[in-house]
Amino acid sequence: MSKTNRTLGMNPETHFREIYRTLSTYEFPWDINQALSFALFRTYAVPSVGKLLYETGQFTEDTQKRYDDTSLLLEVPLLHGFDSEEGKSAIRRINQMHRMYDITNDDFLYVLSTFVVVPQRWIRDYGWRQLTDDELLASVRYYQTLGRHMGIKNIPETFEGFETLMDDYEHEHFAYDAGARAVADSTMDLLASFYPRPAKRIVNLFSRTLMDEPLLDAFRYKHPHPLARKASLAAMKARAFAVSKMPARRKPKHVYEMSRIRSYPNGFDIRAMGTFAPGCPVDHSSPTADSVG
Prior knowledge:
1% strand, globular
């Protein structure tokens, strides 16, 4: 099968979930997973987001589980649909967690914009091919739908609108916060833990070479040497070339199957994931119809 024809003929206005699911599980599973990790990382550099995550303690004290919960809950609607029982349960869990805190619509919009813009830029720079216009529109429609299910208002209608929103918000709000830096450090340590221990310093340097200067400055991270940036870019380009020559993927690659997801070796119950307010009455001890994996 050609590596470029899986989404051809799909209507991005009516089949946006199928298109985005194909991109995420067949065409660019590694790229989109990496890009979304970096998208969330960018949000820490907005103090109102990063400081809140630090104050919850979840992203510094149990980083692996928070990473797993976020990744898995976001994947469920993509795989099963927004109107499926699993999709509804995942979005309900996301909304319940968000309602525990005072989060502005502007911050919600910014985070949503990173999910649209960062993967497109990642694939533009490091992907084995470029997204088509229909694929880009499908990603916009997918996240517009997710945003509406989360009750977010004033969602942009176009990719350009999301791009302007993200860039402007970062220009206005990126700033140093000690708590946000702690969250970023914990996340960097988690990313390094996915590789052999001796590679930790290399992973840290490689990660920083993929960050732009405003993001590095917001965390007060040391800027990598230009030669390190060139080496990283060359490595990413070499990977893209190699992937472009590989046969088309025959089986989908799901987030819940990835080795870096470690918290649920026996499958997960959507209703029991994430954080809960003290005294939550829900029994999380037994499997339910919303169990996955």
